């Protein structure tokens, strides 16, 4: 399935696309001095991919909390929770595939590093069944992965650096795709920056940063000074998810903004100097009026926040302006069509179940379903049945076969139903390749061991003739899948 987004336009006005599937595998590094448009670029990337992939934003300045208003991200105010609660929330995020913003702005630097490390470690340590694809965006990454010791305690720096290193070096196998943004490459730990294969380089002025950026982009040193001349919101991009050659891109517009807005010049007030002096120094010794206490936002208890994370999509679907969810008949038709499309894709069988479910959810949303019609367990079962050619699991003809399959482990449902369906239809027994695809393996040895296990459980009887051709009987049904070409 194609999953590309447009982040902007090149010098000729042609769209510059980012392949999200490739980005998940190869990660992204963004560099630019303050005011170069880094946050705008990250916001564009997040907005355009919000419907395609789960997003987790580590936000030290509270710039991305506005994503909640437009795209339903759950904002986690880090200062309201302790270390244990942050760890629990991180685990639930992976389980429920919620897009969140971890807002660290209320914490001091050392506390930000400790909180981010706890949160990232919880994402990283999630059970294998929860390894769904997710973008993990870390703004101001030089704070969490500093190249050298600074003003914070060495213990805090080591913990934070280790979490960032895990994200960038080992996160891919767990579905975590790091997107890190920094003001200066020289301040970012090299072993963290080196793991990114995609780069978007904005305006920078220091020679050491320009030289490193030019090296990453494959530019000659004499071309490095062109990075100094980039305008705000303009970047040079390179990488397998962006372009095989350096490409200049002007980042497109965004729908959300920072809560504080942008700073611009305002006309000075027209007040005479004498009046200004009077306003500044009048009645300094008089008792100041009591300050009006601003109401503090309600602290959301951790358990309540976790419930919100568990049901973010359902909450969006119930919003007044949300499109109506298709009825049961339309939903079933969409499920069948999506499963058929997925099975037509040769690459989908090599993916883990979590990635397959992510693919299924995205395809459903592309067909205007506000939420995935199946949870993970139901999807795993329907996908296994679809592999065996069973479109409607409620059809009474499959009930006896499904009852027998209940005696086997869940991961054997697809190969057993494939064999059982062939037996019921009087077709040849599926060969090793077909059974292996259904079981998710290319190993002939694993296929043989699978059949041996099924036979020991009494659900099938395998016979091989002198020519090496296999037949399989389902004894409880008294049917047989005929001779195959191999045994």
From TrEMBL:
Q: Which residue numbers delimit the Helicase HerA central domain?
A: 5-110
User: Known InterPro entries for this protein?
Assistant: ATPase_Atu1862_pred (IPR014588), HerA-like (IPR008571), HerA_central (IPR002789), P-loop_NTPase (IPR027417)
The protein's matches in Pfam families, at most eight in alphabetical order, are given as: DUF87
The record's Gene3D superfamilies line, in alphabetical order, gives: P-loop containing nucleotide triphosphate hydrolases (3.40.50.300)
Q: Does the keyword Nucleotide-binding apply?
A: yes
Keywords assigned? ATP-binding, Nucleotide-binding
Q: What GO molecular function terms would the record report?
A: ATP binding
Q: Which PANTHER family match?
A: HELICASE MJ1565-RELATED
The name on file for this protein is ATP-binding protein
């Amino acid at each position: 399935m194609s999953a590309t987004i447009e982040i902007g336009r090149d010098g000729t006005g042609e769209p510059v696309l980012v392949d999200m599937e490739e980005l998940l595998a190869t990660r992204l590094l963004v560099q630019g001095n303050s005011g170069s448009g880094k946050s705008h670029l990250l916001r564009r990337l997040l907005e355009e991919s919000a419907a395609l992939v789960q997003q987790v934003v580590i936000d030290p300045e509270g710039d991305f909390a506005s994503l909640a208003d437009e795209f339903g991200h759950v904002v986690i105010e880090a200062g309201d929770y302790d270390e244990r609660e942050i760890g629990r929330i991180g685990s639930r995020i992976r389980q429920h595939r919620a897009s969140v913003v971890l807002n660290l702005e209320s914490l001091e630097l050392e506390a930000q590093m400790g909180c981010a490390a706890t949160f990232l470690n919880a994402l990283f340590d999630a059970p294998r069944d929860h390894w769904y694809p997710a973008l993990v965006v870390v703004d101001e990454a030089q704070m969490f992965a500093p190249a050298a010791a600074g003003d914070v305690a060495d213990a805090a720096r080591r913990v934070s650096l280790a979490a960032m290193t895990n994200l960038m070096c080992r996160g891919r196998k767990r579905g975590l795709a790091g997107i890190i943004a920094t003001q200066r490459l020289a301040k970012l730990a090299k072993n963290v920056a080196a793991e990114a294969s995609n780069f978007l380089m904005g305006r920078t002025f220091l020679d050491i940063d320009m030289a490193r950026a030019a090296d990453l982009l494959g530019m000659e040193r004499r071309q490095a000074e062109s990075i100094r001349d980039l305008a705000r919101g303009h970047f040079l991009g390179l990488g397998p998810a962006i372009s095989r050659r350096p490409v200049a891109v002007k980042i497109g517009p965004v729908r959300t903004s920072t809560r504080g807005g942008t700073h611009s010049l305002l006309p000075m007030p027209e007040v005479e100097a004498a009046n200004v002096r009077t306003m500044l120094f009048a009645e300094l010794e008089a008792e100041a009026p009591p300050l009006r206490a601003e109401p503090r936002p309600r602290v959301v208890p951790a358990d309540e926040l976790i419930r919100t994370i568990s049901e973010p999509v359902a909450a969006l679907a119930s919003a007044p302006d949300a499109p109506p969810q298709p009825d049961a008949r339309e939903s079933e038709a969409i499920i069948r069509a999506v499963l058929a499309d997925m099975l037509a894709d040769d690459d989908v069988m090599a993916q883990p179940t979590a990635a397959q479910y992510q693919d299924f959810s995205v395809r459903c949303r592309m067909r205007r379903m506000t939420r995935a019609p199946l949870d993970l367990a139901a999807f795993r079962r329907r996908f296994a049945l679809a592999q065996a050619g069973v479109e409607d699991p409620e059809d009474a003809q499959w009930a006896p076969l499904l009852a027998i399959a209940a005696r086997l482990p869940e991961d054997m449902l697809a190969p057993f139903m494939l064999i059982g369906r062939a037996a019921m239809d009087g077709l040849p027994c599926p060969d090793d390749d077909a059974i292996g695809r259904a079981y998710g393996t290319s190993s002939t040895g694993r296929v043989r061991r699978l059949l041996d296990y099924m036979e020991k459980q009494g659900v099938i009887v395998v016979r091989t003739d002198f020519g090496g051709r296999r037949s399989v009987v389902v004894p409880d049904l008294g049917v047989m899948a005929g001779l195959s070409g191999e045994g």
